[in-house]
Amino acid sequence: MNKCTERIFNGLVKENPTFVLMLGMCPTLAVTTSAINGIGMGLSTTAVLIMSNMLISMLRKIIPDSVRMPAFIVVVASFVTIVDFLLEGFVPGLYDSLGLYIPLIVVNCIILGRAESYASKNPVLPSVFDGIGMGLGFTVGLTCIGIVRELIGAGQIFGRQIMPDSYEPLTIFILAPGAFFVLACLVALQNKIKNHLAKKGKKAPQNAGCGEGCASCAGRGICGGHLVSDIKKEEEGA
Amino acid sequence: MQELLLIAVGSAFVNNVVLSQFLGICPFLGVSKNVKTAAGMGGAVVFVITIASFVTGLIYKFILGNPNIMGGELEYLNTIVFILVIAALVQFVELFLKKSMPPLYNALGVYLPLITTNCAVLGVALTNVQESYDILPGVVNGFATAVGFLVSIVLMAGIREKTEHNDVPESFRGTPIVLVTAGLMAIAFFGFSGLI
Predict the structure, then answer these.
(1) The whole model's pTM is what?
(2) Strand (E) or helix (H) holding A72
(3) In chain A, what are the domain boundaries?
(4) Which distant-in-sequence residues (6+ apart) come within 8 Å of A16 by Cβ?
(5) pLDDT digits over B1-60, tens only?
(6) pLDDT tens digits for A126-164?
(7) Which of B122, B180, B190 is opposite residue A180, by nearest beta carbon?
(8) Contacts with B104 (C-beta within 8 Å, 6 or more apart), sequence order
């Protein structure tokens, strides 16, 4: 059981997909207009992640190595379709506000990334808990960003008025540019902590955002872990 | 004709794929370090999205959404079929270009494998179904969306080449300043919203 709690801690704190690994940026930016949307998207992704991790871990000895990517994609896409229908049937309000981003869970790097780097190499139970941990980490990340944007942009949290009436909401924060600004401040804060740690001589956790390195990106299987600029350089050299 | 033009302007500028729909953020942040690579990536995206929206349009019209097959109830397979078709299509396009058009392959080749993980491609295919576009409007929508991507990634790369030499606060160096720039660009693109 110890290993299972370790996986959850790992997903929530040590390798938090939103704040540390910077994976799945598209939904992070797109659906965090309010805290409730953030939770909805996070929990849908968690459900898909748990199910796909479980199934892929069960099938890990059967799927041949050469076709593992398409196989993973089919598994993930099936669960996404199921979640899509469940949301449409039971929470139509949330379904309408998340819209196109529910089917797009398929191409969320977190899910394929966990399938590739954890579930395909580990037994079922730890994989399920890895899914729970990573999913909850993602949910917490999205909800935090959602709370900040909703508070500044509408003066509310979870639809409840928090700010006094004299507060004039900065609507820009629930529009597209606000997403970029909030995320920018967040990454800057993270950089500050990292620089601070580096000065103290401690080893800072590796940033694996798509822009910086692809250590934990799902696309690594395809691009081989090279940034495009590096590939270009190699080709020019050769 | 007017309808097609409206679709094109709408998806290229008003609802810009990166700056207002947040699709394809990964390549937008990752491959925008200089204008040349950004243009290459943008070109490859235009190429793939246009073909993909044509092929997925055909598949939807004649198989998945066809009322004569299973009474048109195959729509629930959209996501699964589209993502597989797109992945296969990208591989196929790469092989085809390598064999028959080496100059084009040299220009776009390295970017093609990265496009499978670009959610804009699947996003366009699904939008076409949601808006029930026929094949021609679907292809126009795809092409225009991709042009919107090309425009924004090239603009971003141009700005980034300049900000490299600016005196940016230490914590904001790297990704944060790029995100702030993207936010300002998104505000600028709001200016297009009066067009339609």
Answers:
(1) 0.83
(2) helix A68-90
(3) 3-199, 208-238
(4) A137, A140, A141
(5) 888 888 888 888 888 888 888 888 878 887 888 888 888 888 888 988 999 999 999 999
(6) 999 999 999 999 999 999 899 999 999 888 888 888 888
(7) B180
(8) B97
Residue found under tokens 């220009």: B107
Q: Looking at beta carbons, which pairs linking B112-116 to residues 24 or more positions away fall under 8 Å?
A: B112/B44, B112/B48, B113/A222, B113/A223, B114/A219, B114/A222, B114/A223, B114/A228, B114/B27, B114/B31, B114/B41, B115/B27, B115/B44, B115/B45, B115/B48, B115/B90, B116/A219, B116/A222, B116/B86, B116/B87, B116/B90
Give the number of beta-carbon pairs within 8 Å between A and B: 155
What SS3 state is found at A157? Answer: strand
Residue A211: its chain B contacts at CB < 8 A?
A: 29-30, 174-175, 178
Q: Do B170 and A191 touch (CB under 8 A)?
A: yes
Select from A54, A103, A100, A99 the least CA-distant residue to A83.
Answer: A103
3-class DSSP state of B66:
coil
Cα B35 to Cα A50: distance, rounded to the nearest angstrom: 40
Q: Do B110 and A212 touch (CB under 8 A)?
A: no
